[in-house]
Amino acid sequence: MNAANDETDKRQKLNRISPFSQTAFCLSGIFVMLCFFGVPPRLHADGGLYLFPKGAKAEGLGRNGLLNVDVWAVYNNQAALAAIDEMTVGVNYENRFQINQIGVSSGAFAAPALTGTVGVDIAHTGIESYGETRIGAGYGKQLAKKLSLGVHFNYHLLSFGSGYPDLYAFTGEIGLIAEPLTNIFIGAHIFNPTLSKLNSRNEISVPLIFTIGAGYKTERLFLVSEFEKEQTGEFIPRIGGEYTMFKNMCLRTGVSFNPVEMCFGVGWTIGNLQLDVAFSWHEALGYSPQAALSYKFAKLLNKNKK
Predict the structure, then answer these.
(1) Which sign does the torsion angle of CA 68, 73, 77, 81 carry?
(2) Who is most buried in 28, 71, 192, 263, counting CB within 10 A?
(3) Residue 282 · residue 263 · CB < 8 Å
(4) DSSP three-state, residue 34
(5) Three-class DSSP category at 32
(6) 154 and 52 Cβ atoms separated by less than 8 Å
(7) 299-to-82, 85, 86, 106, 119 alpha-carbon distances in Å
(8) What is the pLDDT of residues 189-227, one digit of tens each?
């Protein structure tokens, strides 16, 4: 009888732990494992293979995209999709280091569906003799009043022109966003938790990347910081800020380290149209201009959030 009562007490204590606390504990454990256990050799993290275009807004914020609620959440953190309640489509182009051959073109689409929000995306870079393409689909859902979860699946293709076989890989992503205090947000995202590899004899691994971040947001001000960790790489800290000068215009700036990238950006809202422009300066490779255009359609679908 005493044993049964003890078991009941344990279950009651477990139920009193908030979903946010449980999530934070799980993510902390995953992060520790990522930091101390090795993974196989991988391709470079910045660009390369998985094509992770953050969008011009994130670029202007110092490459901070983890907490941004826009159509580019389908790339940056799918948990943010849960806050999108209008069908939205966007296109983005980055002229990386002002070299047309490695410029990245991308598109994204998000729409409310299935008590959450679904998103699809496509990105491409390269020339005729070498190209990289990513196609993906994701889903974000609000689990509790201030907690959202998102998942994403990708198909990556590396093409080498005629006479050479293409390489491909399938990867997944998972992300979380929570608001533990009013106007304070935290987020986490894992890219390729399954340690997927290219279909090559050398078993080249796709990068495993973990990102955590926190932000403070009011009607006019948004401050954010992130830490990105690739398993065998260094921590990449980032910090950025956005200030809304007028109702339809905001200024952004930020910096990313390891290596140093200084970033600046401007955003304009004209009705349902959003235009974002950003410029970044890499300490070794120079400038990279970027622009994104997105459009929100009328609320065609109503989400039943619980």
Answers:
(1) positive
(2) 71
(3) no
(4) helix
(5) helix
(6) no
(7) 15, 7, 5, 24, 16
(8) 999 998 888 876 666 778 889 999 999 999 999 999 999
Count of structural domains within the chain: 1
User: Does residue 305 fall inside a structural domain?
Assistant: no
Q: What is the mean pLDDT of the chain?
A: 81
Torsion of CA 232, 233, 237, 240, to 10 degrees: -110
Torsion of CA 218, 219, 223, 224, to 10 degrees: 80
Structural tokens at position 284:
């070794």
Report the alpha-carbon distance of residue 138 to residue 230 in Å, rounded: 22
107 Cβ neighbours under 8 A, 6+ residues apart? 89, 90, 91, 92, 121, 122, 123
Question: Does residue 242 belong to any structural domain of this protein?
Answer: yes
Which two tokens mark 207? 């990068």
Structure tokens at 215: 């932000």
- Which domain, by its residues, includes 178? 19-296
CA 60 to chain centroid, in Å, comes to 15
Scanning the structure block, which residue is given the tokens 């296109």?
91
Residue 79: C-alpha distances to residues 76, 142, 190 (Å): 9, 8, 11
Q: What is the pTM of this model?
A: 0.79
Question: Which residues does 134 contact at the CB level (< 8 Å), separation at least 6?
Answer: 50, 51, 121, 122, 123, 124, 154, 155, 156, 157
Q: What single letter denotes the amino acid at residue 145?
A: K
**Which DSSP state fits 25?**
H
Instruction: Please give the Cα distance from 184 to 214 (Å, whole number).
Output: 7
Does any domain span residue 182? Answer: yes
What are the structure tokens assigned to 271, written together? 């009705």
Distance of CA 112 to the CA centre of its chain: 19
Strand 116-127 with 104-113, pairing: antiparallel
